[in-house]
Structures are given as structure tokens and as C-alpha cells.
Design goal:
- This protein is an alpha+beta fold.
- It folds into 3 domains: 137 residues, 2-Layer Sandwich (Methyltransferase, Cobalt-precorrin-4 Transmethylase, Domain 2), CATH 3.30.950.30; 71 residues, no CATH class; 163 residues, 2-Layer Sandwich (Heat Shock Protein 90).
- The protein is built from 14 helices and 18 strands.
- The strands form 6 sheets. A 6-stranded mixed sheet has the order 12-11-15-16-18-17, with helices on one face.
- Strand 4 and strand 5 form a beta hairpin.
- Helix 2 packs across helix 3, helix 10 runs antiparallel to helix 11 and helix 11 runs antiparallel to helix 14.
- The chain is globular.
- It starts with a helix and ends in a 7-residue tail after the last strand.
């Protein structure tokens, strides 16, 4: 890290990626900070810098002692061990230690006393059970849509809906099922829709009789606000959409088609007019939110319409190494492989990961925000001033 970068960091103060410590007194406190960075996005600990940004510096004996403490803490007080990089830097004629902790690849990390931490702004906090499950899943390549819903069984499936899907997906298997040569349980098991006699999350979301009975937070909140501020208590219309994947998609599109403005692109005023935001774009973004959201987070998808914009908020940041630029170019990572594979037979969805690219091709006025701290991905579509409504 260069002096100019250090200067800017210290001037900006502590944040999610940089922590200041005048001294380190014991391995317990240090291990908690290291664990928090490892379970988050990584970061730096500046030793010899006070909380207010004043550079205090370190003596030779302190540098020797702290280096030993850092090494021992990383190896002995954190499970699994981490491998930080330490630098001794001369800054403002004083020496400080910068500990760089990389984003962990074997999450979740814990202290030797069994405590799990992550970053929360410039501070740290204990990890919730929900977050802990998600971190375990990330490290072991587990998928939320494969999870078994223990309170369910095959009687909770809408079999008529499943038959319609199966006939479209594989007519030969459907014929063998109807003739009795194949059991429904075998087909459902092969498609990862049931496991050990219970529905998986994917089975419930796609074909459940009452999906929200067993997956209570997985619905869509639609609100048309009377203004441009989400904190206002005034709204024009509000709706909670529940049901299967097909229901969520169709009703969300209906909500937007009934609230967005239309404009005439010809002299024939007897036509219904075109939506201010193309339906193709709306479809791609809603499907993207449904298929690729993080189902380890118990929260709803939110469709918020304001006077000047439309926001589609999806629980979960972008997975792993995926960035907004990669996503816009058509690269994707499948967070929910069962939903990704089977949704193409239920929704207008290709499953190829190019939905964002297609959405932009129909409507370019879209901003994407990957909020790591809030664990939320948001699509913001600017509404244009229209001449003829």
C-alpha cells in the first residue's frame, strides 16, 4: 500500500474495509476483527493509528511483539486458520503495521471460542443463524433450492400443474407416467423436486399448492408510491403477490402493466399504446430476481414504482466472482440450479444467463446496484417524460 493510498484511507476514516487500532492488547480481540473481515469482503487493520485517525506509530519492541501476536492469532485462534499479509510502513516519520486480510474462501470463520463475526459498516457484529447457514452453503457448494422442507410431503404438490409442466418438458416421460410404467415419486425425485418424501424448496416454489405456507417470506411486494421517496406513507396502490413461480410472475407483470404509463407511437389513438418500459425488459428483470435471488435470506422481492423510476429489489448480493459488468455482458452464476433448469418450461426464460443483457437491449436506462452491506441487488429503471399518455 502506497503512502498516498494510506493518507486517503486514514483521512476517510474507518469503514467496512479499514479498521484502526492504536495497539493490540490480546489475541482474543484481534481474532474477532480478523474473523469479521474473513467472513465479509476482506480488509485492512492499521496498527499504530488511533480511532480518530491520528498516527501514533509503533516502537521496535511493539512491532516485534505485534508481528508475533498476529501470526499466532491467525494460526491458533481462528478456525479454519487464515493467512494475513503484514506490512511495516513508515508514514509521517512513524512506523505502523498494516494487516491485510483477504476475503475468506473457507467460510464461515470463527474464533477459538466458537464466535462468528462479520463486518457491519466500520464495526463488527455476530452472525445470525440465517447468515451462518448461507456461509456454510457457500463454502460447501450447497444450494438453497435443494433444501428439504420437512413439514411437507407429496400431498402438498399441485399435481395437475406438475403434469402440465412435465408434458411440455418431456412428453415421453409424461406418457410413461400416465401409462403407469413410471411412478410420480421417481420422476419428482429425479428432478430434485422431492427428497426423502418431502418437497424441496424448488418443488414447493414451482408446484406447491400453497407455497407461502412453507416458504413464508418468498413472495413479491408491489407498491406504487405517491412520490419519489420510499419513506413516504402515501402510496397509490399496494399488493402482496403470493403463489407459485408462475403466479408470481404473471401477477407482477399485471401489476406493472396496470400502473406504468403508455404512449402512442402512431397517429391511431384507438390503439392501447406502448408501455413506457417495454414488457420484455420487465419480464427479464422480474424473472432474474425470482430465479437468481438468495433464498437463504428470508425476505421478499420488492417491486417499487415511483414517479421518476421503477426499482426491482432482490434479496442477496451478486454471488462469488460475478460483477455487474460481467452480468451485463451475459455471464452468469447459477445460485439456484434447479430453479434455473426448470423455470424455462414455466416462464418466458431461456436459462442461458443472458436475461440482463436482453433487458438492456430493449431498454437502456437501467442502473444496477450490488449492495454488499445490505445483501441486496437492485435494478433501477428511469422513467422518461412522455408526450402522449
Amino acid at each position: 500500500m502506497y503512502n498516498q493510498e494510506i493518507t486517503e484511507t486514514i483521512l476517510n476514516g474507518e469503514d467496512s474495509f479499514n479498521q484502526f487500532k492504536e495497539v493490540i492488547l490480546d489475541s482474543k480481540k484481534l481474532s474477532e476483527e480478523m474473523v469479521a473481515f474473513s467472513n465479509a469482503e476482506g480488509g485492512n487493520i492499521f496498527i499504530g493509528v488511533a480511532d480518530n485517525g491520528e498516527v501514533k506509530g509503533l516502537s521496535d519492541s511493539q512491532i516485534h511483539s505485534f508481528n508475533q501476536l498476529i501470526s499466532n492469532t491467525a494460526n491458533e485462534n481462528i478456525k479454519p486458520p487464515i493467512y494475513p499479509i503484514t506490512q511495516i510502513v513508515e508514514f509521517e516519520s512513524k512506523r505502523i503495521i498494516i494487516i491485510t486480510i483477504r476475503k475468506g474462501i473457507n467460510k464461515p470463520y470463527q474464533t477459538s471460542t466458537g464466535l462468528f463475526y462479520t463486518k457491519s459498516g466500520s464495526d463488527k457484529r455476530k452472525i445470525s443463524q440465517e447468515e451462518l447457514r448461507r456461509l456454510f452453503a457457500e463454502s460447501k457448494n450447497l444450494y438453497a433450492d435443494e433444501e428439504i422442507l420437512m413439514k411437507t410431503d407429496i400431498s402438498d404438490l399441485n399435481l395437475q400443474l406438475f403434469y402440465q409442466f412435465l408434458e411440455k418438458k418431456d412428453s415421453q416421460v409424461f406418457t410413461e407416467l400416465k401409462s403407469g410404467r413410471l411412478l410420480i415419486e421417481t420422476i419428482l425425485k429425479n428432478l430434485d423436486l422431492i427428497d426423502e418424501g418431502h418437497l424441496t424448496l424448488a418443488g414447493n416454489l414451482l408446484f406447491g399448492l400453497q407455497p407461502q405456507k412453507f416458504s413464508k417470506s418468498f413472495y413479491i411486494d408491489c407498491v406504487y408510491f405517491d412520490g419519489n421517496d420510499v419513506s413516504t406513507n402515501r402510496f397509490i396502490t399496494k399488493e402482496r403477490i403470493e403463489g407459485t413461480f408462475s403466479d408470481l410472475f404473471k401477477q407482477s407483470i399485471h401489476f406493472l402493466k396496470s400502473t406504468l404509463k403508455r404512449y402512442q407511437d402512431s397517429e391511431n389513438f384507438n390503439t392501447i399504446g406502448r408501455l413506457e418500459i417495454p414488457e420484455e425488459t420487465l419480464s427479464e428483470l422480474i424473472i432474474n430476481a425470482m430465479v437468481h435471488r438468495d433464498y437463504y435470506i428470508n425476505s421478499s422481492i420488492k417491486i417499487f414504482l415511483f414517479w421518476d423510476r421503477l426499482e426491482i429489489r432482490s434479496p442477496g448480493k451478486l454471488p462469488n466472482s460475478l460483477t455487474i459488468e460481467k452480468m451485463k455482458s451475459g455471464i452468469s452464476i447459477h445460485r439456484n440450479p434447479i430453479l434455473n433448469s426448470l423455470s424455462q418450461y414455466i416462464l418466458p426464460y431461456s436459462g442461458l444467463g443472458s436475461g440482463i443483457k436482453r433487458a438492456l437491449s430493449y431498454y437502456s436506462h437501467i442502473e444496477f446496484i450490488n449492495d454488499v452491506l445490505k445483501e441486496e441487488f437492485t435494478c433501477i429503471l428511469k422513467r422518461k417524460e412522455l408526450k402522449y399518455i
